[in-house]
Hints:
By secondary structure, the chain is mainly beta.
Amino acid sequence: MYAVVETGGKQYRVQAGDEFNVEKLPGEIGSEVVLDRVLLIGGDETKIGTPYLEGAKVKAKIVQQGKARKILVFKYRAKKNIRKRYGHRQPYTRLRVVAIEG
C-alpha cells in the first residue's frame, strides 16, 4: 500500500517504512506527525481524492531536523561593478512513515 501526500507545497509518494525529507516541520526528534493532506491511496484498490481524501492520513515519526548542503548564489551585472555573493542552507525534516490509514 502506498500514498501520495502533500506537505510544504510538494507531493511525495510514500510507503510504510520509507524515510524522506520534507520542508521543515515543527517538532522534536521522535515525536509523531500526522499528514492529513492525502491525495491518493494505492494498492489493491486505488482511491483518488478531489483534491484530498476525507478521513485518510499518514502517520510519520520525526527522525532528524537538519540543513541541506549550502548553495552559493552569485549576482553580477556586466559593466556596472556590481557583484553580490551569498549562500543559503535550506532547513528540512526527515520523516519515517509509520502507518497509512484510509
